[in-house]
């Protein structure tokens, strides 16, 4: 049986644009674009993990706004359960501490990037956000 990792990611939104981050050369799926985030550690809620990961990866403080969707996919011999959160309020300017580069684009423009496969259904769910669940659901 494959190990399952719970991972959270943020769909950061500013002025109608969302933030994409390019995976570095040393990571799985190098060069692909994704929503920033990371692994949920033991004892953490998804929101707590997202706040910690975005401080570490981007140097920003956030408050997750809404749960968007989840998607499971096998990647590099593991099952990744990826949970996306919409983040509309960011304190600070994102800096690519982990990623190769960052880009702000419209959700529709994001579909033209070489997105990590697990992020595509999350982006599609974000585009339909009015039906998303409030953040206090999880």
Low-confidence runs = 131-138
> Roughly how many Å is the radius of gyration?
14 Å
Q: Number of helical segments? A: 3
- How many runs of DSSP E, i.e. beta strands? 10
Mean pLDDT: 90
Helix content: 10-25%
Proportion of β residues? 35-45%
Distance N terminus to C terminus? 26 Å
Pattern of helices and strands:
EEEEHEEEEEHHE
Q: What structural category do the secondary elements indicate?
A: alpha+beta
The main β sheet shows up as: 8 strands, mixed
GO molecular function: 8-oxo-7,8-dihydrodeoxyguanosine triphosphate pyrophosphatase activity; 8-oxo-7,8-dihydroguanosine triphosphate pyrophosphatase activity; 8-oxo-dGDP phosphatase activity; 8-oxo-GDP phosphatase activity
Protein name: Pyrimidine (Deoxy)nucleoside triphosphate diphosphatase
Domain Nudix hydrolase: 2-128
Pfam family, one: NUDIX
Secondary structure elements and their pairing?
Blueprint: E1 4-14, E2 17-22, E3 33-34, E4 37-39, H1 46-58, E5 61-62, E6 66-75, E7 78-87, E8 90-91, E9 102-105, H2 107-110, H3 119-127, E10 133-134
Keywords for this structure?
alpha+beta; 8-stranded mixed sheet; 138 residues; 3 helices; two-stranded antiparallel sheet; disordered C terminus
Quick take:
The chain has helices spanning 46-58, 107-110, 119-127, and strands spanning 4-14, 17-22, 33-34, 37-39, 61-62, 66-75, 78-87, 90-91, 102-105, 133-134. By secondary structure, the protein is an alpha+beta fold. The strands form 2 sheets. Strands 1, 2, 3, 4, 6, 7, 9 and 10 form an 8-stranded mixed sheet that branches. Strands 5-8 form a two-stranded antiparallel sheet.
């Amino acid at each position: 049986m494959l190990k399952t990792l719970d991972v959270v990611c943020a769909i950061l939104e500013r002025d109608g644009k969302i933030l994409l981050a390019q995976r570095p050369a040393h990571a799985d799926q190098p060069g692909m674009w994704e929503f920033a985030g990371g692994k949920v550690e033991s004892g953490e809620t998804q929101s707590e993990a997202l706040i910690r990961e975005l401080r570490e990866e981007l140097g920003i403080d956030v408050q997750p706004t809404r749960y968007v969707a989840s998607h499971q996919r096998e990647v590099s011999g593991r099952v990744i359960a990826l949970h996306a959160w919409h983040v509309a309020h960011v304190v600070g300017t994102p800096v690519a501490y982990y990623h190769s580069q960052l880009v702000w684009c419209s959700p529709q423009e994001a579909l033209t990037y070489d997105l990590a496969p697990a992020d595509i259904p999350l982006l599609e769910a974000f585009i339909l956000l009015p039906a998303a669940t409030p953040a206090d659901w999880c």
